[in-house]
Design a protein that fits this description.
Elements (H helix, E strand, L loop, with lengths): L2 E3 L6 E3 L3 E2 L12 H13 L4 E3 L8 H13 L5 E6 L13 H15 L6 E5 L9 H12 L6 E4 L3 H7 L5 E7 L11 H7 L3 E5 L22 H4 L17 H13 L7 H10 L6 E2 L6 H9 L8 H19 L4
Parallel strand pairs: 3-4, 4-5, 5-6, 6-7, 7-8, 8-9, 9-10
Antiparallel strand pairs: 1-2
Helix pairs in contact: 1-2, 1-10, 8-11
Length: 328
């Protein structure tokens, strides 16, 4: 597995991580037994970075990751969680010292960690990124030993660039994949210059880039790929990266045709992400242990060729750019 240094933390992490949203719901049903097998399979495959959040299954994902940490007892593992989506209403004035500490306490309990490795503001309202008061509180929480550092999870390039003005920021989590390229232009170079880690989420465009879907594919009613295609429940860009489903399937078919025989389309897409200059880790999800294993294998595969990269860019410009580039 290729590794990187996690920005200002200085910790070595795997280039392929494990996203844990699916253990809390919104991706159909993943049993607790399967979730634990996925976590251990990922770790057995040299994955050392695990990403969760306090709202995934109302904390159930954190609870499962905490159980995994007790079973694993491996100091090389880094667990990143998120807070802020518990705000009700989800408004800037909810990001108070009292709420931030309460959310933090809840995560520490569920994960079984006195000091959290990394806590990210979870796509807060845009004004929060400019609120000195919020970041002063986060600095205080680090000084109190509640967490080793903090980062942000953002929806837009503009939010990322605003967050980069914070001197103690450790990481930016942002959607980046073959179908979402805008962060390459400004965010990645700026973050690298400031030694801020980039965590690439939705690296497979909600499964589109796995090459497994057809225009007729359907998903469970509890799966966000059914209920959030138009942003009904949260930002539309989180579902299929904001690409209309039928167009995304057709474009993904062209991407898969470029994939060499020794790689699956998902591995091909993941390798593209981690080869981007400035990306520290990609965090695909997995609902089966075999998915976790094959995802991890992308971290030791050869980089894509110049010809493949050029062809992927042409597909993006011709089929995808019009839907996403100006929005996020």
């Amino acid at each position: 597995m290729d590794t990187s240094t996690m920005g200002r933390t200085g910790q070595t992490i795997s280039r392929i991580g494990q996203g844990c949203w699916q253990f809390g719901g919104d991706w159909g049903n993943v049993s607790d037994e399967t979730a634990m097998k996925v976590l251990h399979t990922a770790a057995d495959s040299d994955v050392t970075f695990f990403d969760t959040a306090d709202v995934y299954g109302d904390g159930h994902s954190e609870e499962l990751v905490g159980r995994f940490l007790k079973e694993r007892a491996d100091e090389s593992l880094l667990v990143a969680t998120k807070m802020g989506r518990r705000a009700d209403p989800h408004e800037p004035d909810q990001f108070t010292a009292k709420n931030l500490r309460a959310w933090n306490d809840r995560s520490r309990t569920l994960l079984g960690m006195d000091t959290l490795d990394l806590v990210q503001l979870h796509c807060p309202p845009t004004p929060v990124y400019s609120d000195d008061r919020v970041f002063d509180i986060l600095d205080e929480m680090v000084a109190e030993g509640r967490m080793k550092g903090y980062g942000v999870s953002v929806e837009t390039v503009d939010e990322a660039m605003t967050a980069l003005q914070r001197p103690n920021l450790r990481s930016i989590q942002i959607i980046l994949n073959i179908f979402r390229r805008k962060p390459l232009e400004e965010v990645l170079p700026a973050a690298k210059a400031q030694n801020v880690a980039i965590i690439a989420r939705v690296p497979l465009a909600s499964g589109l880039l796995s090459g497994r879907f057809s225009e007729e594919s359907t998903f469970a009613p509890t799966d966000h790929r059914t209920f959030n295609r138009h942003g009904e429940s949260f930002d539309q860009g989180e579902t299929f990266s904001g690409v209309p489903f039928a167009e995304g399937v057709a474009a993904a078919r062209e991407v898969a045709a470029l994939c060499p025989p020794e790689m699956t389309p998902a591995q091909f897409a993941l390798r593209w992400v981690i080869d981007q200059d400035g990306v520290n880790v990609a965090i695909p999800g997995a609902s089966r242990p075999e998915q976790a294993r094959t995802n991890a294998e992308a971290g030791s595969m050869p980089s894509l060729s110049t010809e493949q990269l050029d062809a992927l860019e042409e597909i993006y410009d011709r089929r995808i750019r019009q839907f996403v580039h100006s929005r996020w």
